[in-house]
Design a protein that fits this description.
Largest sheet: 4 strands, antiparallel
Strand order of the largest sheet: 2-3-1-4
Strand content: 5-15%
Distance between the termini: 51 Å
Helix content: over 70%
Order of helices and strands: HHEHHHEEHHHHHEHHHH
Number of strands: 4
Number of helices: 14
Shape: rod-shaped
Radius of gyration: 66 Å
Length: about 525
Protein backbone atom coordinates (compact mmCIF):
# COMPACT_ATOMS: atom_id res chain seq x y z
CA UNK A 1 0.00 0.00 0.00
CA UNK A 2 2.63 2.42 -1.16
CA UNK A 3 0.29 5.27 -1.92
CA UNK A 4 -1.84 4.88 1.20
CA UNK A 5 0.14 7.29 3.40
CA UNK A 6 -0.42 10.01 0.84
CA UNK A 7 -4.18 9.52 0.87
CA UNK A 8 -6.22 11.51 3.40
CA UNK A 9 -7.55 9.27 6.16
CA UNK A 10 -11.24 9.10 6.72
CA UNK A 11 -12.75 8.91 10.22
CA UNK A 12 -13.73 5.28 9.76
CA UNK A 13 -10.18 4.50 8.66
CA UNK A 14 -8.80 6.18 11.78
CA UNK A 15 -11.14 4.18 13.98
CA UNK A 16 -10.13 1.02 12.13
CA UNK A 17 -6.44 1.76 12.69
CA UNK A 18 -7.03 2.46 16.41
CA UNK A 19 -8.91 -0.78 16.84
CA UNK A 20 -6.36 -2.74 14.90
CA UNK A 21 -3.40 -1.19 16.76
CA UNK A 22 -5.19 -0.93 20.12
CA UNK A 23 -2.57 -2.86 22.04
CA UNK A 24 0.18 -0.54 20.83
CA UNK A 25 -1.87 2.33 22.24
CA UNK A 26 -3.27 0.79 25.45
CA UNK A 27 -0.08 -0.79 26.74
CA UNK A 28 2.15 2.37 26.51
CA UNK A 29 -0.70 4.43 27.92
CA UNK A 30 -1.11 2.11 30.93
CA UNK A 31 2.62 2.00 31.51
CA UNK A 32 2.93 5.79 31.47
CA UNK A 33 -0.09 6.13 33.78
CA UNK A 34 1.51 3.69 36.21
CA UNK A 35 4.77 5.64 35.98
CA UNK A 36 2.90 8.90 36.58
CA UNK A 37 1.10 7.51 39.62
CA UNK A 38 4.38 6.17 40.93
CA UNK A 39 6.05 9.54 40.50
CA UNK A 40 3.09 11.28 42.14
CA UNK A 41 3.48 9.10 45.21
CA UNK A 42 7.26 8.88 45.36
CA UNK A 43 8.50 12.34 44.35
CA UNK A 44 9.36 14.48 47.41
CA UNK A 45 6.51 16.86 48.21
CA UNK A 46 7.26 20.48 48.96
CA UNK A 47 4.68 22.51 50.86
CA UNK A 48 4.52 26.26 51.10
CA UNK A 49 3.10 28.41 53.91
CA UNK A 50 2.84 32.20 53.81
CA UNK A 51 2.20 34.88 56.40
CA UNK A 52 0.75 38.20 55.26
CA UNK A 53 2.04 41.21 57.23
CA UNK A 54 0.28 44.57 57.08
CA UNK A 55 2.27 47.79 57.30
CA UNK A 56 0.43 50.08 59.70
CA UNK A 57 1.19 53.81 59.60
CA UNK A 58 2.13 55.56 62.83
CA UNK A 59 -0.74 56.27 65.19
CA UNK A 60 0.39 59.81 66.01
CA UNK A 61 -0.24 62.28 63.15
CA UNK A 62 2.92 63.37 61.37
CA UNK A 63 1.89 66.99 61.86
CA UNK A 64 2.58 66.51 65.59
CA UNK A 65 5.54 64.11 65.54
CA UNK A 66 7.75 63.65 62.50
CA UNK A 67 9.17 60.13 62.17
CA UNK A 68 12.95 59.94 62.04
CA UNK A 69 13.03 56.37 60.71
CA UNK A 70 13.28 56.12 56.94
CA UNK A 71 9.92 55.51 55.28
CA UNK A 72 11.44 53.56 52.37
CA UNK A 73 9.72 50.22 52.82
CA UNK A 74 11.88 48.39 50.31
CA UNK A 75 15.04 49.43 52.12
CA UNK A 76 13.66 48.54 55.54
CA UNK A 77 12.33 45.16 54.40
CA UNK A 78 15.60 44.42 52.65
CA UNK A 79 17.56 45.29 55.80
CA UNK A 80 15.34 43.17 58.03
CA UNK A 81 15.46 40.30 55.51
CA UNK A 82 19.25 40.33 55.60
CA UNK A 83 19.20 40.27 59.38
CA UNK A 84 16.72 37.38 59.49
CA UNK A 85 18.60 35.42 56.83
CA UNK A 86 21.89 35.86 58.62
CA UNK A 87 23.85 32.76 59.47
CA UNK A 88 23.33 33.02 63.22
CA UNK A 89 19.56 33.42 62.88
CA UNK A 90 19.22 30.55 60.40
CA UNK A 91 21.28 28.32 62.69
CA UNK A 92 18.74 28.96 65.45
CA UNK A 93 15.88 28.00 63.12
CA UNK A 94 17.65 24.80 62.04
CA UNK A 95 18.25 23.79 65.65
CA UNK A 96 14.80 24.87 66.84
CA UNK A 97 12.86 22.90 64.21
CA UNK A 98 15.36 20.05 63.79
CA UNK A 99 15.81 20.60 60.06
CA UNK A 100 18.06 18.62 57.70
CA UNK A 101 18.22 15.50 59.91
CA UNK A 102 17.63 12.81 57.26
CA UNK A 103 20.24 10.40 55.90
CA UNK A 104 20.78 12.56 52.83
CA UNK A 105 21.11 15.73 54.91
CA UNK A 106 23.74 14.12 57.11
CA UNK A 107 26.15 14.27 54.18
CA UNK A 108 25.56 18.00 53.66
CA UNK A 109 27.94 20.62 54.93
CA UNK A 110 26.42 23.07 57.38
CA UNK A 111 27.04 25.94 54.98
CA UNK A 112 25.01 24.08 52.35
CA UNK A 113 22.19 23.68 54.86
CA UNK A 114 22.26 27.43 55.53
CA UNK A 115 22.10 28.20 51.81
CA UNK A 116 19.32 25.67 51.25
CA UNK A 117 17.26 27.17 54.07
CA UNK A 118 17.92 30.68 52.79
CA UNK A 119 16.62 29.70 49.33
CA UNK A 120 13.40 28.36 50.86
CA UNK A 121 12.54 31.72 52.44
CA UNK A 122 10.89 34.32 50.21
CA UNK A 123 9.70 37.86 50.91
CA UNK A 124 7.26 39.40 48.44
CA UNK A 125 6.13 43.03 48.69
CA UNK A 126 2.61 44.02 47.70
CA UNK A 127 2.36 47.59 46.46
CA UNK A 128 -0.58 49.94 46.25
CA UNK A 129 -0.65 53.14 44.25
CA UNK A 130 1.38 55.10 46.76
CA UNK A 131 3.52 52.74 48.79
CA UNK A 132 3.93 49.20 50.08
CA UNK A 133 0.83 48.27 52.05
CA UNK A 134 1.73 44.69 52.90
CA UNK A 135 4.26 41.96 52.28
CA UNK A 136 4.27 38.21 52.68
CA UNK A 137 6.86 35.85 54.14
CA UNK A 138 6.76 32.31 52.78
CA UNK A 139 8.67 29.16 53.57
CA UNK A 140 8.84 25.97 51.51
CA UNK A 141 9.56 22.56 53.02
CA UNK A 142 8.60 18.89 53.01
CA UNK A 143 6.71 18.71 56.32
CA UNK A 144 3.48 20.78 56.37
CA UNK A 145 3.45 21.23 60.14
CA UNK A 146 7.01 22.52 60.28
CA UNK A 147 6.45 24.68 57.21
CA UNK A 148 3.56 26.44 58.94
CA UNK A 149 5.44 26.90 62.22
CA UNK A 150 8.59 28.18 60.50
CA UNK A 151 6.58 30.69 58.44
CA UNK A 152 4.91 32.05 61.59
CA UNK A 153 8.26 32.15 63.40
CA UNK A 154 9.82 34.12 60.56
CA UNK A 155 6.90 36.56 60.67
CA UNK A 156 7.44 37.04 64.41
CA UNK A 157 11.15 37.61 63.74
CA UNK A 158 10.24 40.23 61.15
CA UNK A 159 7.99 42.12 63.56
CA UNK A 160 10.51 41.95 66.42
CA UNK A 161 13.40 43.01 64.19
CA UNK A 162 11.32 45.86 62.77
CA UNK A 163 10.56 47.22 66.24
CA UNK A 164 14.18 46.74 67.28
CA UNK A 165 15.48 48.37 64.11
CA UNK A 166 13.18 51.38 64.43
CA UNK A 167 14.07 51.87 68.08
CA UNK A 168 17.80 51.49 67.40
CA UNK A 169 17.55 53.93 64.50
CA UNK A 170 15.68 56.44 66.64
CA UNK A 171 18.14 56.05 69.53
CA UNK A 172 21.09 56.23 67.15
CA UNK A 173 19.73 59.43 65.64
CA UNK A 174 19.11 60.89 69.10
CA UNK A 175 22.62 59.97 70.29
CA UNK A 176 24.15 61.39 67.12
CA UNK A 177 22.26 64.63 67.65
CA UNK A 178 23.49 64.69 71.27
CA UNK A 179 27.10 64.44 70.13
CA UNK A 180 26.61 67.06 67.42
CA UNK A 181 24.75 69.30 69.85
CA UNK A 182 27.63 69.13 72.35
CA UNK A 183 30.09 69.93 69.57
CA UNK A 184 28.02 72.89 68.36
CA UNK A 185 27.56 74.04 71.97
CA UNK A 186 31.34 74.12 72.46
CA UNK A 187 31.75 76.08 69.25
CA UNK A 188 29.03 78.45 70.41
CA UNK A 189 30.76 78.96 73.75
CA UNK A 190 34.06 79.57 71.95
CA UNK A 191 32.42 82.19 69.72
CA UNK A 192 30.75 83.76 72.76
CA UNK A 193 34.12 83.94 74.52
CA UNK A 194 35.71 85.39 71.37
CA UNK A 195 32.97 88.01 71.13
CA UNK A 196 33.32 88.84 74.82
CA UNK A 197 37.12 89.09 74.56
CA UNK A 198 36.86 91.30 71.50
CA UNK A 199 34.41 93.64 73.23
CA UNK A 200 36.60 93.80 76.32
CA UNK A 201 39.74 94.40 74.25
CA UNK A 202 38.22 97.26 72.25
CA UNK A 203 35.87 98.63 74.90
CA UNK A 204 35.31 102.30 74.15
CA UNK A 205 35.98 101.87 70.44
CA UNK A 206 32.99 99.71 69.53
CA UNK A 207 30.63 100.84 66.75
CA UNK A 208 27.73 101.41 69.15
CA UNK A 209 29.97 103.78 71.17
CA UNK A 210 30.71 106.07 68.20
CA UNK A 211 28.21 108.76 69.26
CA UNK A 212 29.57 108.74 72.81
CA UNK A 213 33.13 109.05 71.52
CA UNK A 214 32.16 111.97 69.29
CA UNK A 215 30.50 113.78 72.20
CA UNK A 216 33.52 113.15 74.44
CA UNK A 217 35.80 114.37 71.64
CA UNK A 218 33.79 117.60 71.35
CA UNK A 219 33.96 118.10 75.11
CA UNK A 220 37.72 117.51 75.11
CA UNK A 221 38.13 120.05 72.32
CA UNK A 222 36.21 122.58 74.41
CA UNK A 223 38.36 121.77 77.45
CA UNK A 224 41.50 122.12 75.32
CA UNK A 225 40.37 125.51 74.05
CA UNK A 226 39.62 126.64 77.61
CA UNK A 227 42.98 125.44 78.88
CA UNK A 228 44.83 127.09 75.99
CA UNK A 229 43.00 130.35 76.60
CA UNK A 230 43.79 130.17 80.32
CA UNK A 231 47.45 129.49 79.54
CA UNK A 232 47.61 132.48 77.18
CA UNK A 233 46.09 134.66 79.88
CA UNK A 234 48.64 133.41 82.41
CA UNK A 235 51.47 134.01 79.95
CA UNK A 236 50.26 137.60 79.37
CA UNK A 237 50.11 138.18 83.10
CA UNK A 238 53.58 136.71 83.40
CA UNK A 239 54.88 139.11 80.79
CA UNK A 240 53.37 142.09 82.61
CA UNK A 241 54.70 140.85 85.90
CA UNK A 242 58.12 140.31 84.35
CA UNK A 243 58.15 143.90 83.07
CA UNK A 244 57.23 145.11 86.55
CA UNK A 245 60.09 143.12 88.03
CA UNK A 246 62.41 144.64 85.44
CA UNK A 247 61.31 148.14 86.51
CA UNK A 248 61.81 147.28 90.16
CA UNK A 249 65.25 145.86 89.45
CA UNK A 250 66.12 148.97 87.48
CA UNK A 251 64.97 151.08 90.43
CA UNK A 252 67.03 149.04 92.89
CA UNK A 253 70.04 149.43 90.66
CA UNK A 254 69.58 153.17 90.59
CA UNK A 255 69.32 153.28 94.38
CA UNK A 256 72.44 151.17 94.79
CA UNK A 257 74.39 153.63 92.65
CA UNK A 258 73.07 156.71 94.58
CA UNK A 259 72.27 155.56 98.10
CA UNK A 260 71.79 159.13 99.32
CA UNK A 261 69.18 159.91 96.71
CA UNK A 262 66.26 157.64 97.42
CA UNK A 263 62.97 158.00 95.69
CA UNK A 264 59.97 159.01 97.66
CA UNK A 265 57.13 156.67 98.31
CA UNK A 266 54.79 158.31 95.86
CA UNK A 267 57.12 157.58 93.00
CA UNK A 268 57.33 153.90 94.01
CA UNK A 269 53.59 153.68 94.23
CA UNK A 270 53.43 155.09 90.73
CA UNK A 271 55.67 152.28 89.49
CA UNK A 272 53.51 149.66 91.18
CA UNK A 273 50.36 151.21 89.83
CA UNK A 274 51.93 151.35 86.38
CA UNK A 275 52.75 147.65 86.58
CA UNK A 276 49.22 146.81 87.63
CA UNK A 277 47.76 148.86 84.80
CA UNK A 278 50.02 147.17 82.29
CA UNK A 279 48.98 143.75 83.67
CA UNK A 280 45.34 144.74 83.35
CA UNK A 281 45.94 145.97 79.79
CA UNK A 282 47.59 142.71 78.85
CA UNK A 283 44.60 140.80 80.20
CA UNK A 284 42.09 142.96 78.27
CA UNK A 285 44.05 142.58 75.05
CA UNK A 286 43.49 138.82 75.28
CA UNK A 287 39.76 139.44 75.22
CA UNK A 288 39.21 142.58 73.13
CA UNK A 289 40.79 144.51 70.29
CA UNK A 290 42.72 147.80 70.68
CA UNK A 291 39.68 149.78 69.52
CA UNK A 292 37.70 148.72 72.57
CA UNK A 293 36.85 151.74 74.79
CA UNK A 294 38.22 150.15 77.97
CA UNK A 295 41.52 149.35 76.29
CA UNK A 296 41.80 152.87 74.85
CA UNK A 297 41.00 154.43 78.23
CA UNK A 298 43.51 152.15 79.98
CA UNK A 299 46.18 152.98 77.40
CA UNK A 300 45.57 156.71 78.00
CA UNK A 301 45.91 156.23 81.77
CA UNK A 302 49.15 154.28 81.36
CA UNK A 303 50.60 156.94 79.07
CA UNK A 304 49.72 159.73 81.51
CA UNK A 305 51.19 157.75 84.43
CA UNK A 306 54.40 157.09 82.53
CA UNK A 307 54.68 160.83 81.79
CA UNK A 308 54.19 161.69 85.47
CA UNK A 309 56.85 159.23 86.53
CA UNK A 310 59.23 160.62 83.97
CA UNK A 311 58.58 164.19 85.17
CA UNK A 312 58.84 163.38 88.85
CA UNK A 313 61.81 161.04 88.77
CA UNK A 314 63.78 162.06 91.84
CA UNK A 315 65.30 160.33 94.91
CA UNK A 316 63.07 159.26 97.83
CA UNK A 317 63.49 158.04 101.35
CA UNK A 318 64.84 154.81 102.78
CA UNK A 319 61.39 153.59 103.82
CA UNK A 320 60.24 153.78 100.27
CA UNK A 321 63.13 151.61 99.22
CA UNK A 322 62.22 148.98 101.81
CA UNK A 323 58.66 148.96 100.64
CA UNK A 324 59.86 148.51 97.07
CA UNK A 325 61.94 145.56 98.16
CA UNK A 326 58.96 143.89 99.83
CA UNK A 327 56.87 144.63 96.77
CA UNK A 328 59.52 142.99 94.61
CA UNK A 329 59.46 139.90 96.82
CA UNK A 330 55.69 139.65 96.45
CA UNK A 331 55.97 140.08 92.72
CA UNK A 332 58.56 137.29 92.61
CA UNK A 333 56.22 135.05 94.56
CA UNK A 334 53.40 135.93 92.23
CA UNK A 335 55.61 135.17 89.23
CA UNK A 336 56.35 131.73 90.62
CA UNK A 337 52.62 131.10 91.09
CA UNK A 338 51.92 132.13 87.52
CA UNK A 339 54.72 129.89 86.27
CA UNK A 340 53.26 126.99 88.25
CA UNK A 341 49.82 127.81 86.82
CA UNK A 342 51.27 127.84 83.29
CA UNK A 343 52.97 124.48 83.87
CA UNK A 344 49.68 123.09 85.17
CA UNK A 345 47.95 124.33 82.03
CA UNK A 346 50.65 122.69 79.91
CA UNK A 347 50.23 119.39 81.74
CA UNK A 348 46.45 119.56 81.40
CA UNK A 349 46.75 120.45 77.72
CA UNK A 350 49.12 117.53 77.12
CA UNK A 351 46.74 115.18 78.94
CA UNK A 352 43.76 116.45 76.99
CA UNK A 353 45.65 116.19 73.71
CA UNK A 354 46.56 112.59 74.52
CA UNK A 355 42.93 111.87 75.29
CA UNK A 356 41.89 113.54 72.04
CA UNK A 357 44.35 111.35 70.13
CA UNK A 358 42.92 108.27 71.84
CA UNK A 359 39.34 109.17 70.98
CA UNK A 360 40.26 110.27 67.47
CA UNK A 361 41.94 106.89 67.00
CA UNK A 362 38.79 105.18 68.27
CA UNK A 363 36.61 107.16 65.87
CA UNK A 364 38.95 106.47 62.95
CA UNK A 365 39.07 102.74 63.78
CA UNK A 366 35.29 102.46 64.15
CA UNK A 367 34.69 101.19 60.54
CA UNK A 368 37.43 98.60 60.99
CA UNK A 369 36.01 97.51 64.35
CA UNK A 370 32.55 97.40 62.84
CA UNK A 371 33.71 95.06 60.06
CA UNK A 372 35.61 92.81 62.47
CA UNK A 373 32.70 92.72 64.89
CA UNK A 374 30.32 91.98 62.03
CA UNK A 375 32.44 88.97 61.02
CA UNK A 376 32.53 87.66 64.58
CA UNK A 377 28.80 88.22 65.03
CA UNK A 378 28.04 86.54 61.71
CA UNK A 379 30.04 83.47 62.71
CA UNK A 380 28.37 83.51 66.09
CA UNK A 381 24.92 83.81 64.53
CA UNK A 382 25.62 80.96 62.11
CA UNK A 383 26.69 78.72 64.96
CA UNK A 384 23.67 79.87 66.98
CA UNK A 385 21.33 79.02 64.09
CA UNK A 386 22.95 75.60 63.76
CA UNK A 387 22.62 75.06 67.48
CA UNK A 388 18.94 76.05 67.51
CA UNK A 389 18.26 73.84 64.49
CA UNK A 390 20.00 70.86 66.09
CA UNK A 391 18.22 71.53 69.36
CA UNK A 392 14.85 71.48 67.60
CA UNK A 393 15.80 68.24 65.84
CA UNK A 394 16.96 66.80 69.14
CA UNK A 395 13.57 67.51 70.69
CA UNK A 396 11.86 65.94 67.68
CA UNK A 397 14.15 62.91 67.97
CA UNK A 398 13.30 62.51 71.65
CA UNK A 399 9.59 62.60 70.80
CA UNK A 400 10.17 60.04 68.06
CA UNK A 401 12.13 57.80 70.45
CA UNK A 402 9.32 57.95 73.00
CA UNK A 403 6.83 57.20 70.24
CA UNK A 404 8.84 54.16 69.13
CA UNK A 405 9.23 52.93 72.72
CA UNK A 406 5.47 53.15 73.21
CA UNK A 407 4.97 51.44 69.82
CA UNK A 408 3.00 54.35 68.41
CA UNK A 409 5.09 54.57 65.25
CA UNK A 410 4.83 52.65 62.03
CA UNK A 411 4.49 48.93 62.75
CA UNK A 412 4.21 45.52 61.10
CA UNK A 413 1.06 43.60 62.03
CA UNK A 414 0.25 40.01 61.05
CA UNK A 415 -2.85 40.11 58.89
CA UNK A 416 -3.02 36.42 57.93
CA UNK A 417 -1.04 33.84 59.85
CA UNK A 418 0.43 30.87 58.05
CA UNK A 419 -1.94 27.89 57.88
CA UNK A 420 -1.29 24.19 57.52
CA UNK A 421 -0.72 23.60 53.78
CA UNK A 422 -2.84 20.77 52.34
CA UNK A 423 -1.58 20.70 48.78
CA UNK A 424 2.08 20.58 47.78
CA UNK A 425 3.45 23.26 45.52
CA UNK A 426 6.08 20.90 44.14
CA UNK A 427 6.00 18.82 42.08
CA UNK A 428 3.44 20.56 39.89
CA UNK A 429 0.89 17.79 39.55
CA UNK A 430 -1.04 19.47 36.75
CA UNK A 431 2.10 19.81 34.68
CA UNK A 432 3.17 16.25 35.55
CA UNK A 433 -0.27 14.94 34.57
CA UNK A 434 -0.20 16.67 31.19
CA UNK A 435 3.37 15.49 30.49
CA UNK A 436 2.57 11.84 31.39
CA UNK A 437 -0.65 11.94 29.36
CA UNK A 438 1.15 13.40 26.35
CA UNK A 439 3.94 10.81 26.62
CA UNK A 440 1.49 7.91 26.90
CA UNK A 441 -0.65 8.96 23.95
CA UNK A 442 2.36 10.11 21.96
CA UNK A 443 4.21 6.81 22.28
CA UNK A 444 1.16 4.71 21.41
CA UNK A 445 -0.04 6.94 18.60
CA UNK A 446 3.41 7.42 17.14
CA UNK A 447 4.27 3.74 17.18
CA UNK A 448 0.92 2.86 15.59
CA UNK A 449 1.48 5.47 12.87
CA UNK A 450 4.90 4.03 12.10
CA UNK A 451 3.47 0.51 11.81
CA UNK A 452 0.76 1.69 9.46
CA UNK A 453 3.26 3.65 7.42
CA UNK A 454 5.48 0.64 6.80
CA UNK A 455 2.58 -1.87 6.40
CA UNK A 456 2.28 -2.78 2.61
CA UNK A 457 -0.81 -5.01 2.90
CA UNK A 458 -4.12 -4.19 1.20
CA UNK A 459 -7.00 -3.92 3.62
CA UNK A 460 -9.69 -2.12 1.57
CA UNK A 461 -10.80 -2.23 -2.08
CA UNK A 462 -9.73 1.36 -2.41
CA UNK A 463 -6.17 0.35 -1.59
CA UNK A 464 -6.12 -2.08 -4.53
CA UNK A 465 -7.69 0.39 -6.94
CA UNK A 466 -5.25 3.11 -5.93
CA UNK A 467 -2.24 0.84 -6.15
CA UNK A 468 -3.14 -0.97 -9.46
CA UNK A 469 -5.09 1.82 -11.10
CA UNK A 470 -7.99 -0.54 -12.04
CA UNK A 471 -11.46 -1.00 -10.66
CA UNK A 472 -12.32 -3.89 -8.33
CA UNK A 473 -15.17 -6.01 -9.71
CA UNK A 474 -15.90 -8.05 -6.57
CA UNK A 475 -14.62 -8.70 -3.04
CA UNK A 476 -14.56 -11.93 -1.08
CA UNK A 477 -15.67 -11.50 2.56
CA UNK A 478 -13.71 -12.91 5.49
CA UNK A 479 -14.59 -16.49 6.18
CA UNK A 480 -15.15 -16.73 9.94
CA UNK A 481 -14.62 -20.10 11.53
CA UNK A 482 -15.87 -21.13 15.03
CA UNK A 483 -12.38 -21.03 16.52
CA UNK A 484 -11.89 -17.54 15.14
CA UNK A 485 -15.13 -16.42 16.79
CA UNK A 486 -13.95 -17.63 20.20
CA UNK A 487 -10.58 -15.92 19.73
CA UNK A 488 -12.27 -12.72 18.66
CA UNK A 489 -14.49 -12.75 21.74
CA UNK A 490 -11.53 -13.31 24.05
CA UNK A 491 -9.65 -10.51 22.33
CA UNK A 492 -12.62 -8.20 22.66
CA UNK A 493 -12.99 -9.06 26.34
CA UNK A 494 -9.32 -8.45 26.98
CA UNK A 495 -9.51 -5.18 25.11
CA UNK A 496 -12.44 -4.05 27.22
CA UNK A 497 -10.64 -5.04 30.41
CA UNK A 498 -7.51 -3.19 29.25
CA UNK A 499 -9.48 -0.10 28.39
CA UNK A 500 -11.22 -0.18 31.78
CA UNK A 501 -7.88 -0.64 33.50
CA UNK A 502 -6.43 2.25 31.54
CA UNK A 503 -9.39 4.41 32.50
CA UNK A 504 -8.96 3.39 36.14
CA UNK A 505 -5.30 4.34 36.07
CA UNK A 506 -6.20 7.60 34.35
CA UNK A 507 -8.86 8.33 36.98
CA UNK A 508 -6.49 7.63 39.88
CA UNK A 509 -3.80 9.82 38.36
CA UNK A 510 -6.35 12.56 37.65
CA UNK A 511 -7.73 12.46 41.23
CA UNK A 512 -4.23 12.64 42.71
CA UNK A 513 -3.50 15.58 40.44
CA UNK A 514 -6.78 17.31 41.18
CA UNK A 515 -7.20 16.97 44.96
CA UNK A 516 -3.67 16.26 46.12
CA UNK A 517 -1.82 13.37 47.64
CA UNK A 518 -3.37 13.48 51.12
CA UNK A 519 -6.98 13.69 50.04
CA UNK A 520 -6.40 11.11 47.34
CA UNK A 521 -5.10 8.68 49.96
CA UNK A 522 -8.09 9.39 52.18
CA UNK A 523 -10.42 8.78 49.24
CA UNK A 524 -8.66 5.51 48.38
CA UNK A 525 -8.90 4.35 52.00
CA UNK A 526 -12.59 5.16 52.04
CA UNK A 527 -13.17 3.24 48.82
CA UNK A 528 -11.18 0.25 50.02
Amino acid sequence: MADAPHMPLKPDQVIEIVLRRRWFIIIPFCLTMVAGIYLAFTLPKLYKASTLILIQPQKVPTSFVQPIVSSDMDARISTISQQIMSRSNLEKIIEQFDLFRGPEASKMFFEDKINALRERIKVDVTRSRKDADAFSISYTGQEPEKVMRIANTLASFFIDESLKLREETALGTSNFLDVELDSIRKRLEENEALLKTYRESFMGGLPEQLDTNLRILDRLQEQLSGKQEGMRDAQNRLEVLSSQLVEIERLKEAISKSPDDIMNSSDTDSYVKLAQLREQLAYLLTRYTERHPDIQRLQTTIARLEKDIADNNKPGSLDSTVRDTKQAWHQKKRQEDILFEIQTFKDDIATIQNQIQVYQKRVEDTPKREQELLTIKRDYQNVMDSYNSLLARKLEAELAVNMEKKQKGEQFRILDSARLPEKPVSPNMQKLFLIILAIGLGIGGGFSFLLEFFDQSFRRPDDVENFLGISVLATVPIIIRPAHIIKQRITTFMSIISVLFSMLLFAVFFIVTLVGFSKAMEFIHQVI
